[in-house]
TrEMBL record:
Pfam families in the cross-refs: MMR_HSR1 (PF01926), MnmE_helical (PF12631), TrmE_N (PF10396)
Originating species: Thermogemmatispora aurantia
Domain TrmE-type G: 221-396
Record GO biological process: tRNA methylation; tRNA wobble uridine modification
This protein's name: tRNA modification GTPase MnmE
Positions with a binding annotation for GTP: 231-236, 250-256, 275-278
Record note on cofactor: Binds 1 potassium ion per subunit.
GO cellular component, as recorded: cytosol
Length: 475
C-alpha cells in the first residue's frame, strides 16, 4: 500500500453540471472530514459508500467554498483499494480548483496522470491489461471499440494470456526440476512429453496474434485520405460519408483550412476521414503550404479515396494527382493493416454521376488497373453505401466483429506476443535439435517474461511509468 494520499480533479476540465475531486490514500478520511460541514454540525464519519450532503469549509477562515455531496468509501471496495473520498461540487473549474487546493493544503499530494489506476494495479485490483483498458474505454470512438475495451477491462484478454503463460510455466517446471535435482529420482523429461504443451502454448499465442491486426483496426481506425484535383467533390464526399453513417463527428483540434479531419463510424471502425486541398503543383504560395500538408496526410494514410469528376474530361491535374500517388507507393497492394505499412490501397471514386458522363474510364484505368471503383453522387446519395461496402470489404476481408470477440487491440501487447511467439519457436527448435534442456529453458523463460509483461506480472518500473504517464490526470 502506498503511504501518501493523492488528490486530483477527476472530471474533465471546463464547465459541467457537477465536478468531482477525488482523494485516495491512508489519510483520505482524516484530511477531508475536517473540511466537510454537515447541516446539523455533525463531525463524525458518515456511512461508507453513501453520498452525504454538506459544505466544504476552509477551517481556518470559515469561508464556504461550495455546497457538495461527499462519498467516503472505506477500502478495499474502492477504485484504488485504498480509502477514497469523492467530493462532488459544482462543475466550475475555479470552484473545483479551490476545493482541490484546500485538500492539498491539508496533507494530500497532487496525483500524477493515471496514478489512481496505477494504485489499483499495484494493489492488485486490476492487472496491466485491465488498467490499460480503462483508458481505452474512456477514449473509445465506436461501439465496437468500446466492446473490445470492456472485454479487456473484464479480464478476458488476460485470462487467455495467463492460460498460455501457465502452460509454458508447466513445461519450465518439469525441465527445471530435472536440472536442479538430477541425482534424485526426477528423470529428464523426454522431448515427446514437452513438445505437445509447447505447441499448445504456441497455438494460443498465435491465435491472439492473429486477431491483433483486426483489434487494432477497431481501436485506432483507419486514416482515410480523400484526394483529387479541386472541385471534383472531395469535401462533399466527406460530408456525405459523415452523414450517412450517423457518424460520431469529432472535430480534431489543430485542423487547418487545408486539411480537415473527421471521424466517421464504418461498421464499428473509426474512419478518420481527411479532406485534402489537393496534391498537384501550384504557384500560389498559400496553396503550396496546403499541398505540403496534403502530401504529408497522404503519406501517412492507410487508404486513399481518389476522386474524379465523371462529368468532365481526364485533365492534366487528374494525371498529376495519379502520378504523385504512385510515387508515394499507393495502390501496389490491396490489403490494409491498422498501421498502414503492409499495403495502401486506392479506391477510385467517380463522382457526379448524376450528370452526363464524359470521363474516359480507360484513362483512369491506365494508372489504376486493379483498384476497386465506385460511382457516386454526393448530390443524390447514389453509390455512397456501395462505397462504404467497398471500404469495409477491403479492410475487414469478411471478418466482422462477433459479440464475444476477444481481441488484442494494444500495440504493446501485440509486440510482446510476437516476442513470446519467437522465443517459443526457438525453444521448440532447440528441443528438436536434441540440445540440453537448459537451452530450451532459456527461451521458455524469455517467453514467460514477455507474456508476464503484458499482464504486469513481470513489468518493470520503467514500463509502468511509460504506460501510466499516458493517462489523464484524475484517472
Ligand atoms: P472539392 O474541391 O473537391 O472539395 O469539391 P467540393 O466538394 O467543394 O465540390 C465542388 C462542387 O461540385 C460544388 O459546387 C459541389 O456542390 C459540386 N458537387 C459535389 N459533388 C457533386 C455531385 O455528386 N454531383 C453534382 N452535380 N455536383 C457535385
Ligand atoms: Zn474541398
Amino acid at each position: 500500500m502506498q503511504s501518501d494520499t493523492i488528490a486530483a480533479i477527476a472530471t474533465p476540465p471546463g464547465v459541467g453540471g457537477i465536478g468531482i475531486v477525488r482523494v485516495s490514500g491512508e489519510a483520505a478520511f482524516s484530511i477531508v472530514l475536517p473540511l466537510f460541514r454537515r447541516p446539523g454540525g455533525e463531525q463524525t464519519l458518515p456511512p461508507s459508500h453513501q453520498l452525504t450532503y454538506g459544505r466544504i469549509v476552509n477551517p481556518r477562515s470559515g469561508e464556504v467554498l461550495d455546497e457538495v455531496l461527499v462519498a467516503f468509501m472505506r477500502r478495499p471496495h474502492t477504485y484504488t483499494r485504498e480509502d477514497v473520498v469523492e467530493i462532488q461540487g459544482h462543475g466550475g473549474p475555479l470552484v473545483l480548483q479551490r476545493i482541490l487546493r484546500l485538500v492539498l493544503e491539508h496533507g494530500a499530494r497532487l496525483a500524477q496522470p493515471g496514478e489512481f489506476t496505477l494504485r489499483a494495479f499495484l494493489n492488485g485490483r486490476l492487472d496491466l491489461t485491465q488498467a490499460e483498458a480503462v483508458m481505452d474505454v474512456i477514449s473509445a470512438r465506436t461501439e465496437a471499440g468500446l466492446q473490445l475495451a470492456m472485454q479487456q477491462l473484464q479480464g478476458r484478454v488476460s485470462a487467455r494470456l495467463r492460460e498460455a503463460r501457465q502452460t509454458v510455466l508447466g513445461v519450465l517446471a518439469r525441465i527445471e526440476a530435472s536440472i536442479d535435482f538430477p541425482e534424485d529420482d526426477i528423470p529428464t523429461p523426454h522431448a515427446d512429453e514437452l513438445r505437445p504443451h509447447m505447441l499448445t502454448a504456441q497455438r494460443m499465442i498465435d491465435e491472439l496474434l492473429a486477431g491483433a491486426e483486426q483489434g487494432r483496426l477497431y481501436r485506432h481506425g483507419l486514416r482515410t485520405v480523400i484526394i483529387g484535383r479541386p472541385n471534383v467533390g472531395k469535401s462533399s464526399l466527406l460530408n456525405a460519408l459523415l452523414r450517412s453513417e450517423r457518424a460520431i463527428v469529432t472535430p480534431i483540434a489543430g485542423t487547418t483550412r487545408d486539411t480537415v479531419e473527421e471521424v466517421a463510424n464504418l461498421r464499428g471502425i473509426p474512419l478518420h476521414l481527411i479532406d485534402t486541398a489537393g496534391i498537384t503543383p501550384t504557384d500560389d504560395p498559400v496553396e503550396q503550404i496546403g499541398i505540403q500538408r496534403s502530401r504529408a496526410a497522404a503519406e501517412s494514410a492507410d487508404l486513399v479515396l481518389l476522386v474524379f469528376d465523371c462529368a468532365e474530361d481526364f485533365t492534366a491535374q487528374d494525371r498529376q494527382v495519379c502520378e504523385e500517388l504512385l510515387r508515394l507507393g499507393f495502390g501496389r497492394q490491396d490489403k490494409v493493416t491498422a498501421n498502414g505499412r503492409a499495403g495502401r490501397p486506392v479506391i477510385l471514386v467517380l463522382n457526379k454521376i448524376d450528370r452526363p458522363r464524359s470521363l474516359p474510364l480507360e484513362q483512369v484505368r491506365r494508372f489504376w488497373p486493379e483498384a476497386p471503383l465506385v460511382m457516386t453522387s454526393t448530390l443524390t446519395g447514389e453509390g455512397l453505401s456501395q462505397l462504404e461496402e467497398t471500404i469495409a470489404n477491403l479492410v475487414l476481408a469478411g471478418r466482422a466483429l462477433q459479440d464475444d470477440s476477444v481481441l488484442v487491440t494494444n500495440l504493446r501487447h501485440q509486440e510482446a506476443l510476437r516476442l513470446a511467439s519467437q522465443h517459443l519457436q526457438a525453444a521448440l527448435a532447440t528441443l528438436e535439435q536434441g540440445l540440453p534442456l537448459d537451452f530450451v529453458s532459456i527461451d521458455l523463460q524469455a517467453a514467460c517474461h514477455a507474456l508476464g509483461e503484458i499482464t504486469g506480472e513481470t513489468a518493470s518500473a520503467d514500463l509502468l511509468e511509460r504506460i501510466f504517464s499516458e493517462f489523464c490526470i484524475g484517472k
